[in-house]
Design a protein that fits this description.
The protein has about 110 residues and is mainly α. It contains 4 helices and 3 strands, in the order βααββαα.
């Protein structure tokens, strides 16, 4: 039986890196900027060094080795903070509109006098 030889690529495009890692292209660019992934330029193209992607992946913590991260609480806290921020922004806009309406009303009253 013939053995199948897997040839690892030297580099990946930004899109291919995002697809392989399950990350967004924005995160891939961020990891290049912060040095997690190494990259090379070929003309206008950015090529991510495959070995750096593989090393970063292998450095991630295992999920099932007893050191399970409690992401449920972290996600809940993050979502609550986002919801709170949006509610505050919505309230600020409501107050802004109310104040603008009051000012317009005062201007109309002042003109009619």
């Amino acid at each position: 039986m013939d053995k199948i030889q897997i040839i690892e690529p030297l580099g990946l495009s930004i899109d291919a890196t995002a697809e392989v890692t399950g990350e967004s292209t924005w995160i891939v660019y961020k990891k290049i900027r912060d040095g997690t992934y190494r990259a090379r330029k070929s003309g206008a193209r950015t090529i991510v060094v495959y070995e750096s992607v593989k090393s970063a992946f292998n450095a991630l913590p295992d999920w099932g080795d007893g050191t399970k991260l409690n992401t449920d609480k972290a996600w809940a806290a993050a979502l609550a903070a986002i919801a709170e921020k949006r509610a505050a922004q919505k309230e600020a806009k409501r107050r802004e509109r109310k104040e603008a309406k009051r000012r317009r009303s005062e201007q109309v009253t002042a003109r009619s006098e």
